[in-house]
Amino acid sequence: MRITILNVSLLIGAIFQLSAQSEEVTISIQPYLQDATPNSIKVSWETNSGEESLVEFGITPKLGRKVKGIAFDVNFTSARIHEVKIEGLDRFTEYYYRVKTGKAVSEIYQFKTPPFASDHESFNMVAMSDMQIDHNNPEKWAEVVNDGVLQYLKKEMKGKLPDNLALVLIPGDLVENGTKYDQWKKDFFNPAEKLFSQVPVYPVLGNHEKNSTYYFKYFSLPENGSPAYAEHWWYKDYGNTRVIGLNSNDGYRDIKEQYDWLEKVLDDTSKNQDIDFVFAQLHHPYKSELWIPGEEESTGKVVQLLEKFSSETGKPSVHFFGHTHGYSRGQSKDHKHLWINVASAGGSLDNWGEFEGRDYDEFTVTQDQHGFVVVEVDANPDDPKFTIKRISRGNANVVRNNEMTDSITVWRKERKPQMPETIYPINEVVDTMGIVLKAGKFKSNGSGAFHAASNWQISTSEDFSSIAFESWKQFENWYYLENRQKSDDLTDEKTERLKANTTYFWRVRYRDQNLNWSVWSKTATFKTKE
User: Fold this and answer.
1) Where would a tag sit more exposed on the chain, N or C end, judged by fewer CB atoms within 10 A?
2) Predicted TM-score of the model (pTM)
3) Alpha carbons 232 and 225: distance in angstroms, whole number
4) What is the pLDDT of residues 12-43, one digit of tens each?
5) For 157-181, how does the pLDDT look when each residue is reduced to its tens digit (9 = 90+)?
6) 18-24: which pairs have CB atoms within 8 A and are 24 or more residues apart?
């Protein structure tokens, strides 16, 4: 029996070899870029056959230099994935390249190496997710890339693509079913070849990838995660920003090693003076206004670690996610930390009212629209900041052609608004049914910022250790296509029913739109009637 199986195996191998020799080599997946450093980059592509893995490159279209790599099996056929690491490059430099396998030669493309953090070079990235095919709208992912990302960058930033965009983040659900080989080529790579051939792409696993071996064959991600879980979590530095990739899927979301690793990376980042910002990406939301069943409690652990990091270091952070097919932007109450849902770049939308939802305090904007997120990082050493912009492609009811529907800017340095003034009540005797707290106008300390949130507290103790009432309101709250905060100027707040014959203490603080809180106001006091 062993001889028979061996003979069959050899026969199959010989058939594949003869087939490969007689078949004309073609490039089935055009070259795509990954794992860029100031001095190196990885180039991958797929062919229907052929073992040669050659990249020609240079600082002009004449190329002039060559480097070889490896080829390996994709799906037990003659098809091959090719991977070449180009080393010895100069930082922040534009290169031309093409790939070659036998007689199959690609077009000439370009890429640009990252800078050192000490170069203080500003850059842009795009974050988008959930581009798995919608069979009712199968061209949406191609539209988001080619009519969306590429046209937006061409119009808004001019110049060449590698100059305008440094990297692409994808927090999961790249294909509908990661175990189906044909979907990777047809539904993910081919529609995005004009983008991925010039800008490195960094994905993390979503639930639709199904932990498939295809995912790990196609992508070569930084090898700095836990050794036993290679490429499940990792980090990549670009200039003054650290990007962290995590796995929030079943079977991995509760592994202690992932959180221990994240804590260590954040601890190292806190000591790294070159890093101003941390952007994490994972698939599942901690909270979702459009689709509560998609929430995942374990993501809350990640949020808490990032919040703690930002408050202790003063370095702002973001967690990008998907899974819910729509855009949301929120912010933690006590921390310089943003919550950004970057879907949907292709998958069918989770429309308002279609699923169970909830109006969460953290979120100020939620939109059931296709689109992508652009992040502009300003690496000015004296005053670094980043700006997040939602670029919308609309939905079935509203057509949007790359309209910016949301934006927020966060600075590394604090710009505290002035301490608010308590106005009423002060040393008053008031009714127990509840009163309206009143404070003075918002003052930005000359930064030009506006009043974006207020946090009110009432306590039975002067040190505010016994909170009787607390309210946190933001200047906008877009939920179900309505701004529920439209008429609130944030300088007053109605309380709940209070206990009779009790002395209370109250205070307020104001926040600007850049996530800077003022100090708490002076403490005022009042007493309720018997």
Assistant:
1) N
2) 0.94
3) 7
4) 444 455 454 557 999 999 999 999 999 999 99
5) 989 999 999 999 999 999 999 999 9
6) 19/49, 19/78, 20/49, 20/50, 20/78, 23/48, 23/49, 23/78, 24/103
